[in-house]
Design brief:
The chain has 118 residues and is mostly beta strands. The protein has 2 helices and 10 strands.
Amino acid sequence: MEITPDLLLKGKPTIIKGKQYLPTAEYVQPFFDEMAKFTDQFIVKVQTPDQVTLTDGDEDITYNRVWVQAVMPEKYTIDNHSEVYSLLYGLDVRTPVYKVARHYLNNACLNLCVFNPS
């Protein structure tokens, strides 16, 4: 689901199979800080856990899978493909993953093109 960067930063710390993870902001704020020097357009997609707890009626939300895309300004567009830098992490997988990548977003059909996956 797509959410705002402000909502993403409210993600709480979590424990998965006995391993403790930091609040979401600890993982994503450095990326936002660095990429904000170049763009103000961020697309944030998350997958929330199946179970959410409540404290005083408010959700204690955590984000186990996050994909943040920093879409570069139009001057970096090549042949209708916007340059994008992404941060992706998954905590609830066998081996937790945290990756940063550069790719291009096809503006005609919204396909994602990664030319050098390393």
